[in-house]
Specification:
It contains eight helices and 23 strands. By secondary structure, the chain is an alpha/beta fold. The chain folds into two domains: about 180 residues, FAD/NAD(P)-binding domain (3-Layer(bba) Sandwich); about 140 residues, FAD/NAD(P)-binding domain, CATH 3.50.50. It binds flavin-adenine dinucleotide.
């Protein structure tokens, strides 16, 4: 590459990680990079608020992809990544066309599949009528007990607790105080990832709402008799209605090194194993926790590595996961923070925002961008550094 020409950076996927990567690159590398966003969807959909929307307690933010690319200073190509040839530094798009790159960021997210045949699988894009039917059954007294199941291989259990809490408060609001609500989870304590502090805060909310939790438990579907069995042991899951989170499935992109489940293998800077010029970030990556804040941190690490490649004088920092989660409790919000991988920091939980702006996904660039978009409907094109720890001291 001519050292004076900008680095041609292709970002595949305009979700949390892709958008964070684009905004970070513009801030860090400016004119040293020319960015292109490859994305099949017409809109960015902010899924973490989907649980709230189900209960009419919030709405899912949507931003036109065209607008988003423009704000991030990127060219938009509508299409899906179908394969990567890193030796030639080209990707294939699903229509058969090829696109060249000097650096590629794969941020295509994960797919999901139902974990059980007989349960209601809750997804943000699922049929609202399915959950609406459950709520009607509660209102009419047909749903005496509802179990929310976190299946094995689910990489983000928080929505199960949000759904359970909001369902419990909803049931009470309908005068159905006897409806029993429970969560069944493989975790040793509720929201184990957030440490003792986060778990204790959640437990207080669960107790107040009357939600019981069955921990260290795996649910299996049985055919004879038809139902669900809780392991270890052989306990029948006593519930008139079972709602399960989906299982995450990797995108398995041809040309990239993936694990057995199809998630992309990367080094601590997000560079794809065995590739020279390909990075990956977000839910598509082989990391056991799939969460928007972590997706943004992975994207920041890749952006720093690519900025260095473009000639910026920067020492790229590796991904060092810090979980920041906001839980919708059905009566308010709870904020949690914890270092995930041997960071040595303490876990914190609070009723006040632990970071600013108080978005559900704490991304350094994405947070301020979405906050501005939600407040004004017109996101500023400026990437403002997130004051991540302002309120935590
Ligand atoms: C109900 C719910 C609640 C959540 N709550 C929280 C929370 O409180 N806090 C938090 O931090 N996280 C939360 N998450 C997780 C968070 O939403 C994800 O971790 C995050 O969106 C992952 O970002 P991503 O960019 O990897 O994937 P996505 O945001 O899924 O974006 C992937 C993008 O890639 C595009 N794409 C797909 N295939 C291709 C292809 N072949 N080529 C090009 N583009 C493609 C998609 O259209 C999409 O735009 C929640 C998730 C759910 C479902």
């Amino acid at each position: 590459m001519d050292s004076r020409s900008p680095l041609n950076v292709l970002v595949a996927g305009g979700g949390v990680a892709g958008l964070e990567a684009l905004l970070a690159l513009r801030d860090l590398a400016g004119d040293r990079v020319e960015t292109t966003l490859l994305e099949p969807a017409a809109e960015f959909v902010f899924r973490p608020m989907a649980t709230a929307e189900t209960f009419g307690r919030g709405h899912v933010q949507r931003i036109e992809m065209r607008r988003l690319a423009q704000d991030a200073g990127a060219r938009l190509v509508v299409g899906g990544l179908a394969g990567v040839n890193d030796a030639r530094q080209v990707v294939t798009i699903d229509n058969g066309d090829e696109l060249e790159y000097d650096a590629l960021v794969v941020a295509t997210g994960a797919m999901s599949e139902p974990a059980f045949r007989r349960a209601i699988t809750w997804t943000p894009w699922g049929d609202p009528e399915l959950f609406g039917g459950l709520r009607r059954d509660i209102e009419e007294g047909y749903a005496q007990s509802v179990a929310f199941v976190v299946p094995p291989l689910n990489a983000w259990p928080l929505p199960a607790y949000e759904l359970a809490l909001m369902t419990a408060w909803d049931a009470r609001g309908m005068g159905q105080d006897d409806t029993r609500i429970s969560v069944v989870t493989p975790e040793r304590i509720p929201l184990e990832l957030f440490g003792q502090a986060g778990s204790a805060a959640l437990q207080a909310d669960l107790d107040e709402a009357g939600v019981s939790v069955w921990t260290s438990a795996y649910v299996e579907e049985s055919d004879d008799p038809p139902g669900f069995v809780v392991r270890p042991g052989n306990h029948q899951l006593e519930a008139t209605h079972v709602v399960a989170l989906p299982r995450a499935v990797g995108p398995r992109i041809p040309g990239l090194s993936c694990d057995e489940a199809g998630f992309i293998r990367v080094d601590p800077h997000g560079r794809v194993s065995g590739s020279e010029r390909v990075w990956a970030a977000g839910d598509a990556v082989a990391f056991p926790v799939k969460q928007g804040g972590l997706a943004a941190q992975q994207a920041d690490a890749t952006a720093e590595a690519i900025a260095a490649l473009s000639g910026v004088d920067i020492e790229p920092r590796p991904f060092r996961p810090v979980l920041r989660g906001m839980l919708l409790t059905g009566r308010g919000r709870s904020w949690m923070r914890s270092e995930v991988a041997g960071g040595g920091g303490t876990a914190v939980a609070s009723r006040r925002a632990l970071w600013w702006p108080p978005t559900k996904v704490a991304g350094r660039y994405l947070g301020p961008y979405l906050h501005a978009a939600a407040k004004t409907g017109a996101p500023s094109g400026l990437a403002v550094n997130l004051d991540l720890e302002r309120a935590s001291s």
